[in-house]
Write the structure tokens for this entry.
Amino acid sequence: MSPERVFELLERVRSGAVRPEAAAEELAKLPFEDLGFARVDHHRALRQGLPEVIFGQGKTAAQIVAISERLLAAGHNVLATRLTPEVAAAVHAALPELELNPVARTALALRHPVAPLPGPPVAVVTAGTSDLPVAEEALETLRAAGVPTERLFDVGVAGLHRLLERVDALRRARALIVVAGMEGALPSVVGGLVSAPVIAVPTSIGYGAAFEGLTALLGMLTSCASGVTVVNIDNGFGAAMAVLRLFRTPGAGAG
């Protein structure tokens, strides 16, 4: 249940269109719904501004479809992440309104309008093209929350002139999600150029000594650019949620 639906229900009680007993029965379903294999958190949008997001890794297509159907029935939009191609195809076949993003490995249904967040965009910056899946996951999450975005892709430190050519775009962003693998240097460079919040995302891209993203993670954690926030390896979703917590208050309505 979204904040808008709660306010609408309370207004209908005040006007006499809905009996208090009926409203109480509807609100009793608000916190969560037990499906046996999952407890769907219908309270998440009220607390965090975004409905519960389905983490698809390890779930069957049938489970994802069942959770999606309950979220939609409760008045939420649906975002599912980390879908394999096979599961994504099966989920889309069962629920065609779920829009697939094969690069991000996500499925998104925006059945209900999302109030856009006013102000400048959030810049999603990648060091290289190989980092795009993680960046696209962040972008789809921000899209689900109504956050405007700007893409700045393939501007890593191996060709620093590519980044410096976009300094104006970096500095007009309200926040920046910076995605990089290899040695993970890009967030430090960006962090030294801008005053807005920087969320760094290490990726598992790199040769052997990159240790599947551990080298980038440690480099970002020890960044010499003050105040850079770091999320886990390949966690584009977590970076987007960090931005959402910065700029949306609970109850502001994100679908």
The chain has two domains: 31-109, 122-247. The longest strand covers residues 175-180.
